[in-house]
Design a protein that fits this description.
Layout (H helix, E strand, L loop, with lengths): L3 H21 L3 H26 L3 H31 L13
Helix pairs in contact: 1-2, 2-3
Length: 100
Amino acid sequence: MIPIEYYLALGITLFGIGLYGVMTQKNIIKILMCIEIMLNAVNINFVTYSSYLHNIDGQIFTLFIIAVAAAEVAVGLAIVVKIFRTHGSVDILKMNELKW
């Protein structure tokens, strides 16, 4: 049996990697991927606590997060395609027209 601390350490590490990626990346696609890593880290923690407490609430909440993440990816990629067609790049620093 693997201790609960290992699962929580994995979740915290993945969340930290995702947060670092969101803060440092300039490419929108990489930022979306890092947000997905953060959501998966939260899912790992929910399932861990659900298993530890012997209830199904965390697993149900994880299914809702997966559904929301799928919708977020669909909308996010549609926005990325539109931005790429308009600006010719997915670099955040080159999008000055969004400021006004």
